[in-house]
Amino acid sequence: MTIFQPPTTFKPRYENWIGGAWVPPVRGQYFENPTPVTGQVFCEVARGTAEDIELALDAAHAAAPAWGRTAPAARAQVLNKIADRIEANLELLAVAESWENGKPVRETLAADLPLAVDHLRYYAGAIRAQEGGLSQIDEDTVAYHFNEPLGVVGQIIPWNFPLLMAIWKLSPALAAGNTVVLKPAEQTPATILVLMELIADLLPPGVVNVVNGFGVEAGKPLASSSRIRKISFTGETTTGRLIMQYASGNLIPVTLELGGKSPNLFFADVAAEQDAFYDKALEGFAMFALNQGEVCTCPSRALIQAPVYDRLLADGLERVRAMRQGNPLDTDTMVGAQASNDQLEKILSYIDIGQAEGAKVLAGGERVDLGGDLSGGYYVAPTVFEGDNSMRIFQEEIFGPVLAVTRFEDFEDGIAIANDTLYGLGAGVWSRDGSNAYRAGRAIQAGRVWTNCYHAYPAHAAFGGYKNSGFGRETHQMALQHYQQTKNLLVSYAPKAQGFF
Amino acid sequence: MPPLTPVSQVAVTPAAAELLRELTADHGPLMFHQSGGCCDGSAPMCFPAGEFLTSDSDVLVGELAVPGLAPIAVWMGREQFAYWSHTHLTIDVVPGRGSGFSLESPTGRRFLTRSRLLTDEEAAALGPR
Q1: Which residue among the candidates A107, A296, A298, A397 is catalytic per the annotation?
Q2: Tell me: the pLDDT tens digits for A256-312?
Q3: ipTM of the complex
Q4: How far is residue A35 CA from its own chain's centroid?
Q5: Between the CA of residue A371 and those of A368, A376, B114, what are the distances in Å?
Q6: Considering A44, A107, A257, A294, which one is annotated as catalytic?
Q7: Structural domains in chain A plus CATH codes
Q8: Is residue A187 less than 8 Å (CB to CB) from chain B?
Q9: Do B43 and A396 touch (CB under 8 A)?
Q10: What fold characterizes domain B10-126?
Q11: Residue ranges of chain B with pLDDT lower than 50?
Q12: B127 has a chain A CB within 8 A of its CB
């Protein structure tokens, strides 16, 4: 067991990161950044506005031509060096991320940061391996297809995995030869700046620019700017629609990842034996509490087949009761703090409506006071509801450690309940019968179906949504195409005129 | 027999009404669109009226009556409303910091939707939509 001290990594005040240097916000305003661990403010961050976005766009545009012409091998080398730098500072960044977001440091040490390192290395490899194409039209005519960067792109990052989501979006954009203006979430504005400072010598000035601020003041000017060639956003549906609306004004492409209400199906054969597989499945049941449920793919609906419903639910609840909630900087802590006070309040409001709709609380259901300095933090007990899929707690993304459990009778019933949702980002299927699991996975309308596993996020497996969960894919080489445009050179090698004139 | 006062599916707390008055002073007439999905999903998003383009894919859930202000429309995606239609929504405000482009986030306060079940009488008066 290790308990890290509150990090001293952070500076008391952060300006914007533009053109490879700290640039004070034009209007001179800053906002306070509290840690959800204790609720205390630990730094101030620039409250950027449209003027700062313009400065960042100036820097990005100045850097774009040279960066876009840089050899793929050279860009790959930059990504690899960033990965090495993160790896060399992994503990520092993991503790900082935990402090800013409230997530347990065991997760940042074992998942967020190692994954960030690996995704960078993946795209470093992917861009070097990417091929253009050529099509022979006829004997003397060839169509060459080149992958060219878009130029300057905008990226709006969510607060649930501040560093990892930034790397998910930056890696393909930079590999493909774009320059970026990045707007972090206002709940988690600082860790990405710690990273930018760490890697300042590795990136040419202006290739990555970070402007902090509130959505309406900094995010909107970025998303609606006519000076970006693409916008990528992870967040919720209303803002997603608004970003598409702004993008339509500029006729630029959008990729959106908008969350879900992911089903986690447990077929009866899972409980056929009390073995390692059953233990693994029970961990899968408990995965709703990973990152305090603040994951777009949180398996927040557990669907259990009727014959084993009582037993699997009882064993799952035992796993939930064994979760250790506490100081996020303690490596033994499994469940930390929600990222913000409004997030905490929203979760509690859902616990209210769940009970009003007649769902039964089987575990948790309340705010937790951990005492001492942690009393000011935002902690919710891992909560399990039993109810019906038509209830709002089964339909809306609570983004907290809240699980809604119901039963299904047969395959068709299970798939119907799983698909009775507006969203389709993630899903889980648990079965000892490979054919059954395969058929279920193909029948579920979701972009990622974890099969006999959950919450794994390796590079080289595509991540993205069906239905209202958005479109576009990340964490796979196909994401490169979201940051590229196709240049076709249609070349004639024929010696004679075409004969029209 | 129909009720004497019109039944509304939405309401606003005094604290939220006060914030709406402040935001109106800065931004003019307002609207809400109830979000879904991840991060700040399931939160009510407040925009200048007309900023968010609604369409046939949205439902006007109701209008907030704030003394001194024009009625504030509360919209929701039609498919989402299918799952929310049996509940009454009260726009409240809490300390916090939402993402998204909602107007109040720079104030350090965040609108929050509180829900309760509609009574049978309310549901009958509202009818199907």
Answers
A1: A296
A2: 999 899 999 999 999 999 999 999 999 999 999 999 999 999 999 999 999 999 999
A3: 0.94
A4: 20
A5: 9, 8, 28
A6: A257
A7: 13-258+469-487 (3.40.605.10), 263-451 (3.40.309.10)
A8: yes
A9: no
A10: Hypothetical Protein Aq_1857; Chain: A; (2.60.300)
A11: 1-3
A12: no
CA dist A353 → A52, A358, B86, B117, B118 (Å): 41, 9, 11, 8, 12
pLDDT tens digits for range A153-186: 999 999 999 999 999 999 999 999 999 999 999 9
A298 is catalytic: no
Output the CA torsion sign for A14, A15, A18, A19. Answer: negative
Using CA atoms, how far residue A316 sits from A285, A309, A411, in Å, is 6, 10, 21
pLDDT, residue B5, reads 62
Q: In the annotation, is A296 catalytic? A: yes
- Report the distance separating Cα A357 and Cα A350, nearest Å: 10
Report residue B61: phi and psi, to 5°: -70, -35
* CB A458 within 8 Å of CB A168: no
Top residue of B19, B30, B38, B104 to mutate, by most chain A CBs within 10 Å, is B38
Q: Give the start-to-end residue ranges of the domains of chain B.
A: 10-126
The rounded percent of chain A whose pLDDT value lies above 90 is 99
The encoded tokens of residue B13 equal: 């707390």
> Which DSSP symbol is given to A3?
B
